[in-house]
Design goal:
Blueprint lengths: L1 E10 L4 E3 H7 L4 H8 L3 E3 L7 H16 L8 E5 L10 H8 L6 E5 L5 H14 L5 E9 L9 H4 L4 E11 L4 E8 L7 E2 L15 E2 L1 H22 L9 E4 L4 H10 L11 H4 L6 H11 L8 E8 L3 E8 L1
Parallel strand pairs: 4-5, 4-6, 11-12
Antiparallel strand pairs: 1-7, 2-3, 6-7, 8-13, 9-10, 12-13
The structure holds acetyl coenzyme *A.
Acetyl coenzyme *A binds next to helix 2, helix 6, helix 7 and strand 12.
Amino acid sequence: MYSKIVGTGSYLPEKIVTNQDLEKMMDTTDEWITTRTGIKRRHVASETDTTANLATRAARRAMEAGNVQPEQIDMVIVATATSDDAFPSTASRVQHQLGLRHVVAFDVSAACAGFNHGLSIADQYIKTGFAKMILVIGCEMLTRAVDWTDRSTCVLFGDGAGAVLLGASETPGLLSTHLHCDGSQHHILYAPNTVVQKNADSPFVKMEGKEVFRHAVTRLGELVDETLSANNLTQTDIDWLIPHQANIRIIQAMAKKLNMSMEKVIVTLDDQGNTSAASIPLALDIAVRDGRVKRGDLVLLESFGGGLVWGSALIRY
Ligand code: ACO
């Protein structure tokens, strides 16, 4: 038995904050943000939004796209670094909001690589026959997790959610997943839980940007090689690259590594900023709906984030 994507969906909050808006709020410029990151604007959740609500909206769209009914879903996996509660999981709220059966629902904590981790877990459950249809969601409200007086982090992030339904299939869809962690670099990208860590000064994202950048380019390069070699493929076999959307220069480096034109790379960073675990399913859904990614295409998803963690998934869509 194999797994394949049967439906995709996404949700972005209506409110948009542009780089020009940020210029009025802090000592920054559109030019700095654009040239350093590629980001032009980001979507920001409203006061009344919750991470679970964003996730549920994306999930509903995936269910409509795949024509999947609530009773068909066997499991909910939510990847998020910004869960509404320390416990229970965002997945449990989503399960309830969608009116699903009492199926297993849990969150995955792997920062910006969380969605690929969720896909990998879902794939294992489908291959073993434990589940036939799994909802995998990446959702974040990172704009709540940054210090809006820290210009080096707050300009980078945005809010949103993306979802896929992974279903059992006779033919291969999800070809392979590859996940890694280097916990020794925990300190270069993290957000402390100040309820538990009494000595932490604030709960906001802390990042040594240059170090993260350096590790990201190296590890993602290795990951591309690992994924191609595990599938006996070469660069030219890949139809689409859907990278985590953190920085256009990291994305360009991966396109170069794959000898791929940027036209074959799905980029949403300019419009959305870094939406962490949501960025890959958001980009996938956009590319499926606008007709770029078609059934049968070979799609490489790759991500990198706090942990450090990094992961890929190769998909015959
Ligand atoms: N506007 C204007 N100036 C700024 C801003 C800003 N928003 N932010 C920082 N600066 C200044 C700094 O103060 C510094 O000034 P100085 O030279 O006078 O000290 C200067 O710009 C350069 O700062 P750097 O941090 O060295 O800039 P860098 O070129 O490294 O770019 C960036 C920073 C964009 C964050 C980059 O390092 C990056 O993208 N890193 C990777 C981020 C990433 O991939 N994260 C992964 C996932 S996130 C997750 O897992 C949740």
